[in-house]
Amino acid sequence: MSIDKISQLVSLLLTLPMLIGCVIVVYVYFGPAWVAWRQRKWTALSAQDWLIIGIVISFIGKILDNSYWTAAWTAELYDVHSKEFLFQHGNTPNIPFRIISSMAAAWCHIKAAMVFSENSDRHVVTKCDYLICVAAGIAIMTLSVLIAYVI
User: Fold this and answer.
1) pTM (2 decimals)?
2) Is it the case that residue 142 has pLDDT exceeding 90?
3) Is the CB of residue 95 less than 8 Å from the CB of residue 68?
4) 3-state DSSP call for residue 24?
């Protein structure tokens, strides 16, 4: 067996306990996140609320992304005919499962730091830090759109 096949097998074997851990995290935090989300008073959410919402978004995205790629790599390992389709179209599930969920989770965590700074004498995020984050985010999104348009 080649080193690539051994790596694929080890990766697939480790994916199951990782997915179980992610499901447990979502199970533990989903209730509090749902309560915070349903408040619809975004300015009233605490830093803890924002962190919990970000955790749930992040781990749901991780579960979906890793489930897709587990199917793709399993198909590759066992030489299933659907492997070509899964790898050719892998960019599509990456957009919502990996990229958008990570961006949303990051935004929630930045918002948590901002709320924490407003309500504390420890200033985690200053307005300058926030502007830098916004500028970097806009730059990354613009670059992504340009690259996608060119390709």
Assistant:
1) 0.79
2) no
3) no
4) helix
